[in-house]
């Protein structure tokens, strides 16, 4: 079922635009710096460079995974896309239209929904499950009876029998059941993009697997697109079509699942993958795992931000910021070793013009 053809959706005036090849969402130069308190009254104003110039596309119908160590800017990127925080710079295009420009914010907001890690905090403890799911559609003008009937459909769809669960309160449910309710709630406005920020990370492994399979079914049935943030690279490999690797507020590498997991061109991605638990001993790599914490995002290293931890770093790496450059049809990497004529001894030699 495509969101563009649902009668319920017509009521909400959401429609399909653009062609299938046009990205559903494009982030261009996204930037968010959070001010931090300086030590002295006259001291320089400092900022956390949480998201520091990030570009990416999410294609229609795909799942884009976002990975990287804690604090690299994954949730801030998600919050910027959701408009939960205001970006300092950059543009968001949704199906070719500028958000806040040709596409009014209100119309954009209901097409992008988010599911967070904490299943309990997202639900109002005073509302029953059916009231929680029906709430947003009612705010958008769907009549109460219709919104409640739809909430029951959605409960059924996420594997919770409406007769048993619709009248319960959040504290009467398990974590996995509550996360199913949050997914139903996210679906209630028939969005086109769902952002899942560590949405399954707090669940037991067996419950996690069931919820992941549910997400895959819903994506197929409702024609959804996902942005999937996770620390668990095995889960990302299972769920995602493409993967974006972030480091200290920037994109280190982005590409197809196969390109990133089997042919990464960025030493940071290699190090992350090396730290991934492997079942098969033959798959284990000799790549040195990451040591220490990432540098402080208030005062990040010059040039390539990874140079303080990279085994391939040369002098040029502390002087030159590598741009995100296309290295194949399905992969872009921000490393001077991949950029011809960059001055790194392992870079391809630049061709004379
Ligand atoms: N509201 C805020 N005010 C100040 N700093 C913030 C704020 N939100 C995030 N940060 C900082 O911005 C950086 C990026 O944070 P973010 O939450 O996006 O990271 P993350 O990749 O989601 O990390 P995790 O994997 O731990 O969830 C961190 O250094 C964080 O401390
Ligand atoms: S640019 Fe230099 S420091 Fe950065 S990842 Fe590449 S080799 Fe390592
Ligand atoms: Mg986060």
Structural account:
This protein is of the alpha/beta class. It has two domains: 3-16 and 23-37 and 47-246, P-loop containing nucleotide triphosphate hydrolases (Rossmann fold); 248-278 and 293-338, no CATH class. Helices cover 29% and strands 20% of the residues. It is built from eleven helices and twelve strands. β9 (242-247) and β10 form a beta hairpin. The longest helix is centred in the middle third of the chain and has 18 residues, at 205-222. The chain binds adenosine-5'-triphosphate, iron/sulfur cluster and magnesium ion (MG). The site of adenosine-5'-triphosphate has 12 residues, from β2 and α2.
What are the key terms here?
binds adenosine-5'-triphosphate, eight-stranded mixed β-sheet, disordered N terminus, binds iron/sulfur cluster, 353 residues, 12 strands, binds magnesium ion, alpha/beta
Short summary of the structure?
The chain has helices at 7-12, 74-82, 105-109, 129-139, 144-157, 162-165, 175-187, 205-222, 233-239, 257-262, 267-274, and strands at residues 25-36, 46-58, 63-67, 89-94, 97-98, 112-115, 193-197, 225-229, 242-247, 250-256, 325-328, 331-333. It is of the alpha/beta class and 353 residues long. An eight-stranded mixed sheet has the order 6-7-8-3-9-10-12-11, sandwiched between helices. A four-stranded antiparallel sheet has the order 2-1-4-5.
Query: How many domains, as an integer?
Result: 2
User: How much strand?
Assistant: 15-25%
And the CATH topology of the largest domain? Rossmann fold
For the termini, the CA-CA separation is 52 Å
Regions with little confidence, pLDDT below 50 for 5+ residues: 1-5, 9-14
Coarse structural class: alpha/beta
What's the SSE pattern?
HEEEHEEHEHHHHEHEHEEHHEE
**What's the tally of helices?**
11
For the largest beta-sheet, the strand count, sense and barrel status come to:
8 strands, mixed
CATH architecture grouping of the largest domain:
3-Layer(aba) Sandwich
CATH top level of the largest domain is Alpha Beta
Average of per-residue pLDDT values: 91
